[in-house]
Amino acid sequence: MLPLLRRSAKPNNNSQCGARGSHAPPAASIAPQQVTVSKPELLVPAPQAPEPQAPDPEPGVWTDRSTGLMWTKQDSGSSMSWNEAVSHSRDLRLGGYSDWRLPTIDELGALYDRSLPDRHIKGGIRLSGWWIWSATKEGSLSAWVFYFQSGIRRSLRADYSDLSRALCVRSAK
User: How much of the chain exceeds pLDDT 70, in percent?
Assistant: First the structure.
């Protein structure tokens, strides 16, 4: 409870209030009175702290906690065919791991976020090109690529080596 002082004054019945010749009631007619006002209680739920994310074990990787997948922080850096991309992922040794692979087309699609700037990819992953090979094959001569500029999925001949890169992934669990 907070004590407040309230001043009471005799009402001024002067209809000329504010006009020349009007005056406020004499100071002697104002008597202080103590009034108690209770402080209202606001029940607000405590804010929930975001779940802390453990740092990734190696600077060159990013772990997507929602999928349990660990990604390389950058693509292969040069254009390559699908077979070269598969070899690149198999030969990769990063973060103390050797079980890297090409992602499925759906895993690549889950990284796409149109609201993000530039390459529209989550996790701060750096892409040197727009097209990324997936492990998803179509027949014996083609494989799917993901286009990070617009989110398009497309099948390309596996021997096509212009523009497409490898981005590697592994299970973090």
Answer: 66
